[in-house]
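hey can u check if this looks right to u? its 436 residues, i copy pasted from the old doc so theres a chance i mangled smth
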Amino acid sequence: MSDLAPEPAAPATPDRKGVGGFVRRYWLEVTLWKRILLGLVLGTILGLAIGEQAMGIKWIGDLFVRLIRMIVTPLVFFSIVSGIAGMGDVKRLGSIGAKTLFMYLALTVVAVSVGLSLGVLFQPGAGMDFAGTTPQVLGEAPTLGAYLMSIVPLNPFAALSNGDIPAIIFFAILIGMGVLIIGEPAAPAVRLFQIGSDIMLVLVRVIMELAPFGVFALVAWVMGTSGPETFIHVFLLACALVLGCAIQSLIVHGGVIGLIARLPVVPFFRDIADAVIVAFSTSSSAAVLPVAMRVAEKNLGVSHTVASTTLPLGATLSMDGTALYVALLAVFSAQAFGVDMSVAQYFMVGLVCVIVAVGTAPVPSASLFMLAAVLQVIGLSAEQTALVVGFILPFDRILDMTRTVPNATSDLVVAVTVAKWEGELDEVAYRAKPVE
């Protein structure tokens, strides 16, 4: 044997020549949120340039949203079951669940207060004239009892097939608790559900590579068909909503991270960019759920156990933007019809807003369908409610994009905070800059 060992081979360098090298260097190696933001900017420019012709590329955005929604149901089911089964102790489920529900409820109450306050401050409905507005009659809002009953599925497989998220969450919690109670004999099932959850998260990562194209098409469609004049027609309402969402996301949610979780705020907002941009472009809390779970575990250091429990619940229960918006619309409607609201009515409106926000479906424009229940509190008729909705509906898409952002930030704030309380947060990963 020779005393001279062969020199180690030089590490392979990526081939940056040709089309493949160009795509790798200037696209795949660029941080995802930057690519999504580029899609948003280019979509805005194209939409303004070609107007309603942007409808021709809307299908690209619809395809992206369809892919995201395709993955939501199995992701929620596998994640919740594996998260609960992995706790190892039934008491931990009660601890995490109670803290999660408390945080979501508290943040919703704050959001309603912000919406009511900004409505009084901006007076967006004062002097409103509904002449020329086409009334839009809505279906009757479900009662709280009816909503709670719908959470318990008569057929769990039908709920899975129909994508009924509240019912899926309830069923998955029961399955997870059953596995947890059985203990060691259920170890193969725990492994199966964990593998299923891992597979879903890999699929999310693959689908998110299409996000820049989906965002580009959706924003081009919105700007091409609605345009910036949307903010001129409802300028005060839009300003109040944008300011309210900024207060809720930056000040309230940032305050929770800094003062309650005792963590630096900058890494949080830096690392959730993917989820925020997808929330803005899709206007759907359900659609952003897979991205939020990936962001929470990969970027923020939240354990799988906490992320898989808090975030699916948040997609259904945490609607800070919706609560804020419905409260703002209630004040707007009262001002438009000359209703002088009393302190008691403000309190009742706030209470009902919290309830309907919890029951609002995590899909675009769903909050408008809950407005009737709130306006009944201040004595507005079904015909008056139809006028308000008819006025808002043409402008609602851009407003909906704005109010979905605090829904997403609320979910991630609660996940990080609960993880910190439970000792399930990797603070090194939280503080570190994520690597794509």
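The CA atoms of residues 79 and 308 lie 5 Å apart.
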